[in-house]
Write a structure and sequence with these properties.
With 89 residues, the protein is mainly alpha-helical. It has helices spanning 3-42, 47-86.
Length: 89
């Protein structure tokens, strides 16, 4: 096993991690910004007001993108298992 194979696996794992996490993180960011703007405009500084909508949007994005995320992860794991099968020491 040479270092280029290890680096390829590391880069692929980082790409897959970013790809899978991006929809949920983007949804949390956008909903947090919108709730923050509404809180600033109305001078309401309640912590649960910012937490509950963010949580709801993250669950909704998980429902919408969950199947795609599982497919991406399954494809990545199949690729890893193929690489492990072809490794010669």
């Amino acid at each position: 096993m040479d270092t280029s194979l290890v680096m390829d696996i590391a880069l692929d794992s980082l790409k897959v991690t970013i790809l899978v996490a991006a929809p949920i993180l983007a949804a949390a960011l956008i909903s947090g910004l919108l709730v923050g703007i509404i809180q600033a405009a109305t001078s309401i500084q309640e912590m649960t007001l910012s937490f509950i909508p963010k949580l709801a949007v993250m669950v909704l994005s998980l429902v919408v993108f969950g199947e795609w995320q599982i497919a991406v992860l399954a494809e990545y794991f199949n690729d890893i298992f193929e690489r492990v099968r072809t490794i010669t020491l």
